[in-house]
Amino acid sequence: MKRIIFVLIVQFIFLLNHSLAQQWRSVGWGVDSNGTVSCLKVIDSILYVGGGFQYIGGQDTINYSNSLYCTSIAKWDSIKWDTLKNFYNTGGVQSIEKYKNELYIGGGFIDLSLTPWRKYLAKLDSSNNWSDVGNIGYPNSDVNCVKSKDTLLFVAGYFNMIGNNYFSCIGKFDGTNWHRLGNGFYGGFQPPYDMKVYNDQLIVGGGFHYAGDTVAFGVATWNGYKWSPLDTGINNNINAMEIDTINNFLYVGGVFSYAGGSGDMIKTYNIAKWDGYKWQAVGNDSGGIFYSGINCLKMYHRELFACGTSNQGNESDTIIAKWDGHSWQKIDGPDETVMTLEVYKDELYAGGYFKKVGDTVAYKIARYYSPLDTSCDYLHAILYPQDATYYMQDSIAVQFYNNVTHPLYWQWDFGDGTIDSIQKPLHYYVSTETFPVSVIVNYQNCIDTTSSYITIKPCDSLNAFVHAYEDTLLYSSGNPPEATFYSNPNADSWQWDFGDGSTGTGFSNSHNYDTAGTYTISVIVKFGNCIDTGSTTITIINTAGINEYFDDITYLWQNIPNPFDNNTSIPYYVPYGSKGFLQIIDVKGELLDEYALQHGKNTLSISLEYLKAGTYFYNILIDGKKKDTKKMILQ
């Protein structure tokens, strides 16, 4: 009984210290009123604060007589401010990370105390001195994010050189030497802007179109050897990422309207969730909350908090909102832009450009408390595969997956009288029918369940096919056309023969043909012990003598209908072997959206319901060059 009373007293005192639930407080008067806070990082029980400022603490914001002088980086222990050894910089700190017991910072700063100047990346070494990172020089432009993983430090940003060596927006440091990560990032309108470690892989988000030689719109993974996309990514810029470590979800936020594309594209309203297998929207109402984009994301007390901007009439409004797994709730908070969020000693800290939170003076940094979510709404069990079909001769092994990490238990029911109790069971089916599959997950006494259907069919039901996106392609000297094919997506393996002596694997393939003719494309599909073959033919036509193909190309047509209400279709043409993009532009010339286009003559159907009524323009880019512009009117 005494223990229970003691616990209740401690909880009561804790709540008193926070005044009331869901309240904002200042952080020791914050930084100087002309400064900014752009990054927050907890390291060894200390909150490090970075940005563009010269003073911290103190109540006098005119002559700073009661403040501590510092240059864009300081630390807070929940009671008082303290400084680090100063470096004489211009610009700001964007990222802070601990690596091999040393503090690394990246940003847009230039240290004027050294010759040559130290730019964009520095470390506080064991002698408490700021020094260069490695011996080949410094990045030649801003560093947006610094992330440690295993024995390496990853650095990404706007730069394309470190010293005299070429690094395309990203590099890795082993404590002594720098190394490239393939060909880095290129294309698009924004370099990498955030990095996370998810499922033991490095995840990078930004506004790029390519990671290495791989098409990866806005987000890519590095497994230590090569880059891979997450499905087809997102259609514009990612500014922030966060991981729900309970449900193992990756959240991305920024300025984009769609995610995915290998299946149906998902309308996203500037925020999306990757569940390990596919993209999902995060609430249908997030478009009204984060109309103009998201700057930062952070999990706090089992809920996702996001900061960004909305539009109220013609004015921009700073927004902080939380997602409980089912709906968004706005939080009354700072009066101006929030750029970063961090959890420190059971409170959520926010940094940015603001001067007040509610009626409380809080220069550029504030802290917020709300009680832990004990409703169990935070638990979201998923099950893969979902409603899948498999083929077998004698038996078939099906790999199952549940997302929840470290629960009290998993309870699987495979629908055939057998059960299991691990996260990712491999189960063998020996009969052909449809089985209901379910899993029950218990995490800290919260229980959630999810289900699916698995259909097992005999081998003779496996009908392999080959689908060609175009059955006729045009060939010109030095410009071989690229043909794209796909086959049964759920098989175990594919062996392609492209009809010209070349082969390939994977359910989807692209292949260049350098000679005119008719080709038979075939694929051998294997599913368990089942094997089947599918085929199709395509024709490659030599364009010699087809003058109109070279001299008078129409790339873009008027959208239909026009004017339109939310949805419209845009006819276009992209030559084979070229890369095409369609851009949505407002009357000020600002880019609002961008779509990758397929080869040939096609129609792009889009929804612009997230835009206000008015006049807009759309451009088509072929191999990076603008070829045509049309006007459209949204009613």
Structural features, described:
The chain is mainly beta and about 625 residues long. Among the domains are: about 390-450, Immunoglobulins (Immunoglobulin-like, Sandwich); about 460-540, Immunoglobulin-like (Sandwich); about 555-635, Immunoglobulin-like (Sandwich), CATH 2.60.40. The protein is about 5% helix and about 50% strand. It has 3 helices and 63 strands. Strands 8, 9, 10, 11 and 12 form a 5-stranded antiparallel beta sheet that branches. A hairpin with a 5-residue loop joins strand 59 and strand 60 (about 590-595). The longest helix has 16 residues, at about 1-15. The protein is globular, with a radius of gyration of 28 Å. Residues about 1-20, about 60-65 and about 545-550 have low confidence and may be disordered.
Approximately how much helix is present in the residues? under 10%
CATH level 3 topology of the domain at 462-542:
Immunoglobulin-like
Tell the overall outline. globular
**Assembly form of the protein:** single chain
The major pleated sheet works out as: 5 strands, antiparallel
CATH architecture descriptor of the domain at 462-542: Sandwich
Low-confidence segments, given as residue ranges, are 1-20, 60-64, 545-551
What top-tier CATH class of the domain at 462-542 fits best? Mainly Beta
Mean pLDDT across residues: 86
* Radius of gyration from the alpha-carbon trace, in angstroms: 28 Å
For this structure, what is the CATH homologous superfamily of the domain at 462-542?
Immunoglobulins
| Number of strand segments | 63
- How much of the sequence lies in strands comes to over 45%
Distance between the termini: 68 Å
